Amino acid sequence: MKILDDLSLESLTEQLSRASRRYVLDVKLENYSCKMVSEEKRQYKDLVSRLEIEGEQSSCLRLSSSRTIRGLRELTGLPISRSSYQMSSSQAEADDNVSSRNRSRTSSSCSEEGSLNSPTKASQLSITAKEFFCLMSTLNLSFNSAYDFLTAESDEFCLEPELRIVKHYISRLCSIYVDKYELLAPKLWLAINEAIVPHKCVIYSYRPNHASDPYSSGCLASFNYFFCNRDLKRILFFSLRVLNESPAEEQFEDEMQDIF
């Protein structure tokens, strides 16, 4: 896997990172190719072997429930009816049906260099070993191997709902911590749409373990999303961490003039 050059995403990462008077923001907006290099192929084989020893089915690994739905409930104080949204896996499958493209749903979908196919229908909250490995590798690459995510369990990741719900949650959280987010949002989602076509993606998130990951110690708030486009064989990683630090006031004022 490798990060893909994208000047629009790089520019927006910089703008978002500087767009708060009160908080220090760590933002990642990165697009990755899911094509494995030799070392990653070896690591993937090791993962499949570990799963076999543990008695796990590599075509249908367990995921946790949505952090987005729980986060919206905490922000708004209102329950969200399950009938009012669909999961992003259904969103991606619906798009495939419109385009008349059929995906294999057998356990063989997780071949060494196979496509990022969907898991079997045994459970909506499931993921293939191939896609699971790509999520872990994305985190390792994004955080420069400062943390070892290759030892994670599949239920440390969550399946998230359709794009409109995820965008709504990001907007609600950013409106708290990012100054004038509403001015940046149109450019942000235009760039994301051009990079990954998010309405065709399955959307995942990583669930912090509150012990040894970058989303636990020193974070006031955070979100992270993996927009996985199986047709493009790419993952766009969008992460925001609100750090428990104070920004430099004079630097903020100069930079905000450049942004807005």
Structural class: alpha+beta
General shape: globular
Strand content: 15-25%
| Portion in helices | 40-55%
Total number of β-strand segments? 8
What value does the Rg take, in angstroms? 18 Å
Contiguous runs where pLDDT drops below 50 for at least 5 residues:
100-114
Total count of domains: 1
Largest sheet: 6 strands, antiparallel
Task: Tell me the layout of helices and strands.
Blueprint: E1 2-3, H1 7-17, E2 24-33, H2 38-53, E3 61-62, H3 67-76, H4 88-98, E4 126-127, H5 129-142, E5 157-159, H6 163-177, H7 181-196, E6 202-206, E7 219-229, E8 234-243, H8 249-259
Antiparallel strand pairs: 1-2, 2-8, 3-4, 5-6, 6-7, 7-8
Helix pairs in contact: 1-7, 2-5, 3-6
What does this protein look like?
The protein has 260 residues and is an alpha+beta fold. It has one domain (2-92, 137-243): Protein Transport Mog1p, Chain A (3-Layer(aba) Sandwich), CATH 3.40.1000.50. 40% of the residues lie in helices and 17% in strands. The chain has eight helices and eight strands. It has helices spanning 7-17, 38-53, 67-76, 88-98, 129-142, 163-177, 181-196, 249-259; strands at residues 2-3, 24-33, 61-62, 126-127, 157-159, 202-206, 219-229, 234-243. Strands 1-2-8-7-6-5 form a six-stranded antiparallel beta sheet, with helices on both faces. A two-stranded antiparallel sheet has the order 3-4. A hairpin with a 4-residue loop joins strand 7 and strand 8 (234-243). The two termini are 35 Å apart.
